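Re: that chain you flagged

S.,

Sorry for the slow reply, it's been a week of failed gels. I finally had a moment to sit down with the sequence you sent. For the record, here it is as I used it:
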Amino acid sequence: MLDILTYIALGATWTIALTLGSAAIGIVLAVPLLALARSRFAVVRGIYSAIVHVVRGVPTLVWLFLTFFGVGQLGITLTPVTASLLTLSVIATAYMAEIYRGGMQAIPAGQWEAAGALNFGRLATLRDIIGPQLFRAVSPSVATQIIGLLKDSALVSTIGVTDLVFRAGVMTQYHAHGLFMFGFAGLIYLLLSLPIALFSRSIHARITRKYAIA
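Prediction finished late last night. Pasting the structure tokens below so you have them in one place:
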């Protein structure tokens, strides 16, 4: 029995790698994507809205199949892991950009004007005034999105990535007891999500204390 549990648990390696990898890429790439949303030109803002709507409007599983099977028809071969990372990263980018946009909208425009009146440069304004407030505003939503990526990563088993779900399925085929196998996998997902939530709360509290933001 211990061998079975160990086999399933080892699938967490890909689960964690894909979750953290796609989250990191999404957190970074969402910044230039957000720049489109804040453009002075309506056409550019429209492009942003279209990208976000399309990415968020199509189920993750469909995007995964389009990436893995569809791209192959164009003569580009992707491994299951590469296709999974690419898919989850694109989805993470769209969701993170919307989270950032919501955070920016929550900050009063007058703070930019006040910073300018005090001769703060744009970089200094972002670092010392806007940044801490934005971080505090978006950190809970970012953590929630990362947990969402963790759960969505279970779909990669459908294209052959040997994650938790894939390995639980293999053990179910060999030994039955599907309730136990997938229940154990579900427990690992739960244990993986808890540190993300706790870390987010810790960072949120720390930034609040540091900058004394009410």
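What I noticed first: The CA atoms of residues 25 and 89 lie 6 Å apart.

Talk soon,
D.
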